[in-house]
Fold this protein.
Amino acid sequence: MRIVITGGAGFIGSHLCDYFISKGHHVVCVDNLITGNIKNIEHLFGNEKFLFIKHDVTNYIHIPGKVDAVLHFASPASPADYLKYPIQTLKVGALGTHKALGLAKEKNAIFMLASTSEVYGDPEVSPQSETYHGSVNPVGPRGVYDEAKRFAEAMTMAYHRYHKVSVRIVRIFNTYGPRMRLNDGRVVPNFIYQALTNKPLTVYGDGEQTRSFCYISDLVEGIYKLLLKNLPEPINLGNPEEMKIIDFARLIKKITKSKSKIVFKPLPQDDPRQRKPDITKAKELLQWTPKVSLEDGLKETIKYFKKIL
Ligand code: NAD
Ligand code: UDP
């Protein structure tokens, strides 16, 4: 296959580039580097199966030649990033998704949208299954991301129903691993960086809010399985092992053997109180289940952060 990956120089996107290249496919990575890093893909530059195009996908995307799949992963993803780039986040979710869908339609290619557990907002039910329609504050600071992704899902289904584009929607829950930016503001790089440099670990709120962390290699495998399956309905991918943020801080301290203190900072507005994926659908339809334990995944991630510190 020849696969276009928007956002391919980012954390998840660059792992997808590697994965598809390793399976013998051709990859065209399209990224404007707003939150990505050229270092994530530099090692692929000599490979004849890999092409990098620096481009903002909110504008028309021109790719000569055949394309079998378009994976639309471009979007700031860290809350700190989308608060810094609110308009760009809305634009890439709305206009960028429209352009990427247009490319898929023109090339008769499969389209995959990187959606998010944020479409569930601050959920009133747990775990969150794909049938839950969410509880999102459209005018809060996180609304720029949540609503852009909700619009992107609606646009994707419209192209599927009206233009008959073959689509996939993956609702990704908190995923972590090597190549996250040290300073991207998400909890995994924040805590690891703080622990490794003996700075206080900053727990927001009382730390009773929960998240469920999935290791990058598990997510990539699920994405590949989904791409090969004709499943237009949204599907959750994530690790259902749920943890309080305060316990996560303690775990990072333990694994890094850090002497850092834990300090409490104000909880950001609309920060979801709980998040745990119901992955029944992925298990049944994709025969997918995450394999990497939190401790093993964190050890790999910490190794990476030690290297780039
Ligand atoms: P990331 O910030 O590392 O990667 C996003 C990439 O998109 C970056 O390389 C950035 O430069 C690029 N980009 C942004 N706007 C663009 C534009 N207009 N044109 C071209 N490129 C653009 O984030 P990530 O964690 O790798 O997330 C990738 C995708 O997965 C995002 O769509 C995100 O919403 C989704 N997602 C991620 C998670 C997670 O836990 N990591 C969870 C849910 C959803
Ligand atoms: N968080 C925290 N300290 C930090 C960064 C994040 O306590 O230094 C909390 C944040 O408030 C949220 C959780 O960790 O409850 C996960 O935050 P992240 O930014 O990783 O992503 P989110 O799941 O909120 O999109």
Observations:
- The pocket of nicotinamide-adenine-dinucleotide (ligand 1) is lined by residues 6-7, 9-13, 31-36, 56-58, 73-77, 92, 96, 114, 116, 172, 174-175 (CB under 6 Å).
